[in-house]
Amino acid sequence: MIGSSLSRWTMAFFSGAVVFLIAAECLMVAGYGFPTMPAEAPETLLLVHTVTIGWLSLLMCGALLQFVPVLVAQPLRDETLVLPALLCLLAGLTTLLAGFLQLTGTLDTNIPFLLIGGYLLPIGFGLILWTLGRTLWQARPLPLPARFVAMGLTCLAATFLLGTFFAHILSGLISDAAMIDFRTQVLPVHAAAGFGGWLTFTAIGVSYRLLPMFMLAPESQRTTNKVVFWSGSIALLSVVIGAPAEFVLGGTGRIASIVAGLSALAALAFYGVDLTSFYHNRRRRNIELNSKSALGAFAALYLSAALLLGLLATGTLAIHAGALVYLVAFGWLTGLGLSQLYKIVPFLTWLECYGPVMGRKPTPRVQDLMVERRDGPWFVLYFAGVLGGTVVLLAGAPNLFRATAVVTLLATVAIVIELVLARRLFNVAAADRFPDGATPPRLFLPASRNH
Asked: Burial letters for 396-430: b for 16+ Cβ neighbours within 10 Å, e otherwise?
């Protein structure tokens, strides 16, 4: 990535994402939404979409805008659409959350916020899809990590189309007493396409590039890589296409669920083989904190799979689905997101500030922008809080869950503060901070010129 151009608005996506993450964790500490309230309550829907769209989706969009050009060695197409996409996503999410507040009775107005959000969010995601899709299309044939991203973007399209459908239902424009039960049949497809396809499958694909790059591990394509891609794709297609087809034909979706489950297990098994290879064959002997903390996220991923199997075996999935979703969202996806932001933010900051003088002036190292010894305990605290939260959710103790949410909130805030200090070059010695020609980075707005 050295010498590659910087996506102008990636840091703005990241900044918005962490604001929504902290907001969501504050809501959990306050007992707003699940588990204090039912899973179907508007308060819970507000919390869920703050996490999935505000935090995870903004984070993923920002990362892809920077890394898709790296994956395919092509410039980002139609980059002028990125800022309108960000504005539509922020406005759409804000109005969507306002719509949920209307459903709770907190906001008393006749403005159709749910419907407005149901249109703005697809526009924003559509612009992202167009920009990234054109970039991928121009780079065919795609390398394997980019194929993961392409499948993830397809699932994103399915997710926001179903989300628009739900917005119309909740707004009263479409009767939910339709041909199929949207809660038991369509809602699981919406969740699986979002969590499993858009977020998880895309994250796996990006990890095939980021982990080797940051750990200096071999990244040549192996048979296991291809098995992960094809098995995961079969699982996603079974859920997104197979299950709805079964419902339309009068089935229960059981066949699609079995195919998806077995395929997903195969993908996870071979992904574990690849992860072990990355860490075992790395040329960088000392593992940096971002790669160490990512182990907690990978552990959460496999713990989630084990928990799902256990809940299915005991017939308690419906009772403990909230604990499973929490572990996936905060242990696996948020854990991976925070761990990689810990490296990506200083890396992009270094490129932005010192890239123009690289080779001509002495510059700090990327590692000098962070203090790993000081920051490591925050990641330990974060994953401990998530694990504790999962346990108390399984035990049905919502008040204890609020206590564990305090732990994850404190750890998250500490990590975010460290990212802000990195953007401000706080840890770099004052004498070395700005050699002649270096560009001081802004906190989240783009630099006056692109490198």
From this structure: eeeebbbebbebbbbbbbbbbebbebbbebebbee
Separation between Cα atoms, residue 257 and residue 22, nearest integer Å: 34
What's the pLDDT tens digit per position in 165-209? Answer: 877 777 766 665 554 566 667 788 888 999 999 999 999 999 999
Mean pLDDT confidence for 69-98: 95
Rounded to an integer, what distance in angstroms lies between the CA atom of residue 121 and that of residue 87? 10
Closest by Cα among 29, 35, 18 to 324: 35
Q: What is the CA radius of gyration of the chain?
A: 22
Peptide bond before residue 141 is cis, with ω within 30 degrees of 0: yes
What's the pTM?
Answer: 0.94
Between the CA of residue 331 and those of 9, 134, 150, 296, what are the distances in Å? 27, 32, 24, 8
Contact criterion met (CB below 8 Å) for 51 and 21: yes
Residue appearing with tokens 């394509």: 221
Distance in angstroms (rounded) separating the CA atoms of residues 40 and 20:
21
**In this structure, are residues 133 and 164 in contact, taking their beta carbons and an 8 Å threshold?**
no
Long-range contacts formed by 283-290: CB under 8 A, 24+ apart: 283/215, 283/216, 283/217, 284/214, 284/215, 284/216, 287/215, 288/214, 288/215, 288/343, 288/367, 288/372, 289/339, 289/342, 289/370, 289/372, 289/375, 289/376, 289/379, 290/214, 290/339, 290/340, 290/342, 290/343
Per-residue pLDDT tens over the stretch 253-273 = 889 999 999 999 999 999 999
Listed in sequence order, the DSSP H helices in 194-253 are 202-215, 223-237, 243-248
| Cβ–Cβ < 8 Å for 213, 157 | no
Rounded Cα distance between 1 and 348, Å, is 10
User: Would you list the DSSP string of 131-156?
Assistant: HHHHHHHTTPSPPHHHHHHHHHHHHH
Residue 3 has pLDDT above 60, yes or no: no
